[in-house]
UniProtKB/TrEMBL annotation:
Record keywords, A-Z: Isomerase, Manganese, Metal-binding
GO molecular function: L-rhamnose isomerase activity; metal ion binding
A biological process from GO: rhamnose catabolic process
SUPFAM superfamilies, per database record: Xylose isomerase-like
Domain spans labelled Xylose isomerase-like TIM barrel: 70-248
Name of this protein: L-rhamnose isomerase
A family per Pfam: AP_endonuc_2
Upper lineage: Bacteria, Bacillati, Actinomycetota, Actinomycetes, Streptosporangiales
Amino acid sequence: MTDTKAVKAALRTQHIETPSWAYGNSGTRFKVFSQEGVPRTPQEKIDDAAQVHRFTGVAPRVALHIPWDRVEDYAALATYARDRGVRVGAINSNVFQDNDYMLGSVTNPDPAVRKKALNHLLDCVDIMDATGSRDLKLWFSDGTNYPGQDDIRARQDRLAEALAAVYERLGDEQRFLLEYKLFEPAFYSTDVPDWGTSYAHCLKLGPKAQVVVDTGHHAPGTNIEFIVAFLLREGKLGGFDFNSRFYADDDLMVGAADPFQLFRIMHEVIQGGGFSDEIAFMLDQCHNIEPKIPGQIRSVMNVQEATAKALLVDGEALRSAQQAGDVLGANAVFMDAYNTDVRPLLAELREEMGLDPDPMAAYARSGYFEKIRDERREGQAAGWGA
Ligand code: LRH
Ligand code: MN
Ligand code: MN
């Protein structure tokens, strides 16, 4: 697409979901740093997410993590969000932070722990009913640390059983997204370590089970855009957890470590017909040392920039070079789009949308940070998670 009007029209339709946990304090296992003005409640996380939407215009949803975002009344929380111009997005289930889950959640050898974990997943679907959320995101930290610790195949059976029960409970408009991760916290074997395992389980269950690609969850050097292309072709890509990494699951700002990879991923999304709300574009990041709201704004802008460049790929020229076996020509078409400076186009688009062309500067000028810094001095700031 080289017509900039069409590129801008497409960009208007993209929605990037921000995670509630990005607004809380976070760190590594060595230290969680406290920042000023950090939200103390799920409502305050939603207030901050609403700012990201206010300045970017393309982040209208915020994902929750349960029980980190525990409230009495989830329908009321959804109304709270709507009143601030955003909606509750994906519900992320947390079956990794209780002592009971030391040897696993849904794959634990103890049936009582498995039952507890499954009940939590089913409770999350109840929450989705209350908030009107479409997607349940399932990530299991389950795995083993030592060879022989547990039966790898039996753990797959237990996983399949739990997934089938959750699938059964989903409403017609609901889906679950099964997330994989190579390692961590399990260091020997992980029960859902890769897209193939996630895909196989989802395929057995049906169309409401989809794979989610967290860009930080692969071995170094993995060709993530191949996975994206493959899953889209099979109708099995449900969404993304975007972030970037230099080493492992670093959860840094998307597009910070490897903007070219993000562009290649977005190219496959567009080529594969995945540029629609059927694919959830979510951020899954932590801002350990940078301010959180600007970190999210920057990340949303990074996704937009990669998307704009991918939309600029001249598809016709690319196809004819590919079909002619013109290796260098095809690569040049691809790189021309990547090397285009799309910042002026995005600034123009924002002005057309009634936004400030520079969301980072507009946020800094808005006084919102000074306001929350003063208002949130008392009480306990939310940490990674709670
Ligand atoms: C696991 C993960 C998963 C969790 C989130 C906090 O590493 O990516 O998506 O829900 O981090
Ligand atoms: Mn994730
Ligand atoms: Mn992760």
